[in-house]
Design a protein that fits this description.
- The protein has 429 residues and is mostly helical.
- It has one domain.
- It is built from 20 helices and no strands.
- Helix 5 runs antiparallel to helix 6, helix 7 runs antiparallel to helix 19 and helix 10 runs antiparallel to helix 20.
- The longest helix has 36 residues.
- About 2% of the residues have low confidence.
- Keywords: Membrane, Transmembrane, Transmembrane helix.
- This is GntP family permease.
Amino acid sequence: MLGILLGLILLMILAYRGWSIIWIAPICAGIVAITGGLDLLDAYTNTYMGGFVDFAKEWFPVFMLGAVFGKLMEYTGMANSIATGIINVLGAKRAILGVSISCAVLAYGGISVFVVAFAVYPLALAMFKEANLPRRLMPATLAFGTLTFAMVALPGTPQIQNLIPTDYYGTTAAAAPIMGLTAGAFMAITGYTYLKWREKKITTAGETYTEPPQTNEVENTIKGAPPPFLVSILPLFTVVITLNILQFDIIVALLSGIVLNLLLCIQKYRGFITAMNEGASGSVLAIINTSAAVGFGTVVQNVPGFAQLSDLILNVPGSPLVSQAVAANVLAGATGSASGGLGIAMEALSDTYMSAAQTFGIDPEAFHRIASLASAGLDSLPHNGAILTILIVTGMSHKESYKDIAVVSVIIPILSVIPAIILASFGIY
């Protein structure tokens, strides 16, 4: 148990300091292996790499197609058109609302959360400037719209954090819709209320907009005029409808969005290969980062102390949904990855929770939704890759912006699990 704790703490500290999880994960896994009595070489070549490869094999197509889809939406100007359309309707003075909704629409449409930050940032910058809002609120606004309700709560979202439980519980992306909508509404209302309160507080104190360093400006890669809003939204609708209504696999859904994007913007065909290459290349780093986290978790699973840790989690008082929420949160926090932590939790404990579902008469859909919701809590600790990306894109630091990020993407998502569990306790899914 001490070795597991030491490995987790070291992983978080080193990741927070900017060290790549690709190489620190096996080092931290080695510490867990040695203190747990495992052979170091075997723990790396077989246990660690086994977990790494299994996750990559299962999920690389989704990572790759999602990244390609997002890059094409960015290159063709469709992402820009959607965000601009929303912002134009709301008005520049409603900067926080406009940026949040723009991020949420793109995330719910299947665009990678990493791509969303780059796509919306130029518009967020213009809106914050027009509204004269301090830029230190921008990272929290982007995180709120991208990493919370649209990623894990809204039924049918094609984000991987909502898809991983389907393999273990035999569910669909639209599992437990009432629980998801309730938790999503909780996150949306409380998160927006907090950001507006913070806006009023810091502007009353005299803080205003300041220009970002030139090096943090995001290059505009859109060639030519972007498509109209109603045309731009079609690929997103196609992904969501194909996945949830037609019940096709997520790979087919993403491919349908990609093909429609290409057809609607065929006049920009000269840049398609470059955009698709960039998306595919970016997906490799994303899947390797997540697989590295899963590999670490696989080693943790194989040391004797994990049985004690599992017992502690499984014996959390109350419904087994509560212990699952704890497990997903703790592991997501340890790895700094919602998908990585969720993958570990599902691989290690899903069979136990499926048995609990039968014993307690709880629908597996409830376990799916709680697992997905819980993965979006402690995952957003300072070493989370998406948080680091948002801070880099906006040119802000942890010191300037992380407190607000923590409220909207750590504390509020954790609290959102409570009403979802209450609904499940009454058989409302």
